[in-house]
Amino acid sequence: MELYAWREKLAPYELAVEELVIKFRRMMSDYRAAGRYSPIEQVTGRVKTIASMLDKANRKGVELEEIEEKIDDIAGIRIICQFEEDIHSVVEIIRQMTDLEVVSENDYISHPKESGYRSYHVNVLYHVQTIYGHRRIKAEIQIRTLAMNFWSIIEHSLQYKYNGAIPQEVGNRLWASARAVQRLDLEMASIRGDVMDSQSLFRQDSGNVADILNNLQNLYRVADKDAVLCIQREFYEVYRQGDKEELREFGRKLDKLAAEKGAQKLRY
Ligand code: 0O2
Description:
Elements: H1 6-33, E1 42-47, H2 50-60, H3 67-70, E2 75-81, H4 84-96, E3 100-107, E4 120-130, E5 133-145, H5 146-161, H6 168-190, H7 192-222, H8 225-241, H9 244-260
Parallel strand pairs: 2-5
Antiparallel strand pairs: 1-2, 3-4, 4-5
The structure holds ligand 0O2.
Ligand 0O2 binds near residues 72, 106, 117 and 152.
């Protein structure tokens, strides 16, 4: 890699990261908009800093001109899931994507690293279109649970603090906490069904409140204003009482009324 031109060299990697982040975030919001559980909880991405790239090249004995060829995570995407089971769904989604090629996979969940690190890595070639033409960009997608991510961030900071030579005593503690994280993920897996049910109810209830507010706004444009203000007071009373079933019933009645008045089709 020509160091004097590193900004230009990294431009297509930035494009790949931006596009991939948008795509995965879009999947997350599409699942939610469809009222379905999203196996993706958070998505972040970054292009490796030039300092971190030089550091890694040095560590791995990679020559400057070999950096792009031999370092797979210049473009990095991190997908965080709530549950370990979701990781496999996300890996399957990636395998099915037609705008990238899966080159290799590293399963550090079934086979954790010596440090205790657990995560699933998928190395891909992602196609981008630049003003200089088509490029296939290497990217590493790391998929892990919230708990694995927490551990990994702490361990990464300690690696930095101790310059990669974590003292034995600290390493032992990290290893023990990695085991605790594994137990936590197992424990969470056993209550996954309950957690998903309650999240689904929460989504339905917030959707119900949003629908009620939409209906009120639309009715205000077509119906008698005093009558709408009266409905609004009634809604707030039901809302304050906190009975979710009564709120759902209120929503259904308001839906009917809005349909009768032709208020549901109104758009701003
Ligand atoms: P950064 O700063 O996160 O980008 P390696 O030779 O093991 O260093 P390789 O061969 O590129 O790396 O592949 P691997 O093992 O899949 O690791 C790539 C990335 O996974 C690392 O990038 C880290 O982000 C993460 N990772 C791997 N092992 C560990 C670990 O033990 N602890 C933590 N916290 N993260 C790990 P970088 O460039 O090392 O770091």
